[in-house]
Structures are given as C-alpha cells and as structure tokens.
Automatic annotation (TrEMBL):
A Pfam entry, by short name: Thioredoxin
Domain named Thioredoxin: residues: 1-101
Organism encoding this protein: Eubacterium album
Name listed for the protein in its UniProt record: Thioredoxin
Keywords recorded for this protein, A-Z: Disulfide bond, Electron transport, Redox-active center, Transport
Amino acid sequence: MELEITTENFDELVLNSDKTVLVDFWADWCGPCKMLSPVIKQIAEERNDIVVGKVNVDEQPGLGVKYKIASIPTVIVFKNGEITNKSIGLVSKAELLSLLA
C-alpha cells in the first residue's frame, strides 16, 4: 500500500517509522514520474517489510524544499529517521530495490 505523505503526517509516517520507508517525490505534470508510479506501486504491494509513501511536491512544497528536491522523480529511503539512500530520475525496479538493500 502506498501512503500519501504530507507535511502534517511526515514525521509520524516517515521519521518515526520502525520500518524502512521509501518516499517517492513526484508531481502530476511529470512524465517520468508517471512512468515510475507503477513500479513504486509494485514494490509497495510486494514488500510488506517496508513503508512506501508518495509526496506530491506541488501540494507539499515545504517537503520538497526541506529535502532539496531539485528534480523529480526523486526517491529517498529513510531508516530510523535518517536518509540512507537517494535516487534521482527514472530508474528501474531493480535499481529501486537496491536502494533498500
């Protein structure tokens, strides 16, 4: 399941999670984001050991600024509230899974 992450729930769902969290920063107008979305959804459905969330940077600009999102899609992996990995641009499922290793 993919969670919609907002400024209001970010700390609870991402920083305070006891699981690894994969966060996809995206926007409606972004073509590569639309191409990556089904891959993110697959990972969310297949991996119940992690949390998968999506941040719409147009609706949540504060999170985009806080995490210095200059290009989308950007995927950031958090563990114990800390960034452990990051990917910018359209990447394969295998590349995303390697971020979680």
